[in-house]
Amino acid sequence: MTSDATEVLTLEELAALLKISETTAYALVRTGELPGRKVGREWRFLRSRVLDWLAQAGQEETGMEHGVVQRDELGGEFKVEDGREYVAMWLPISRAEKAAHLDKAAREGVNVSELVADYLKAWAEA
User: pLDDT tens, 75-86?
Assistant: First the structure.
């Protein structure tokens, strides 16, 4: 017996899994929207990839497109990767000032991520 990760589906099984017609499934495959591979004259699909595709489509519909930087309702930027949300922070400095700070940190062997983390901890405690 194969695990879900390696289970290979035919076009007919794919349509049954997605609860759509074979014609609709074939149309999704032909446009490249749905991940699959042609083996000889037949299409084959990994169940796990199909389920990942379906989950990603659900994220896109809710504005949570995987791996793409998006704006939230407050104007901030974020992206979602591997089920985790990452937010961007804006600093009130120019790009030239940022570059100078990063160069200085590199010369002095300072971990910039630790500086940011310390700043955020102090800010949260205030």
Answer: 667 777 777 777
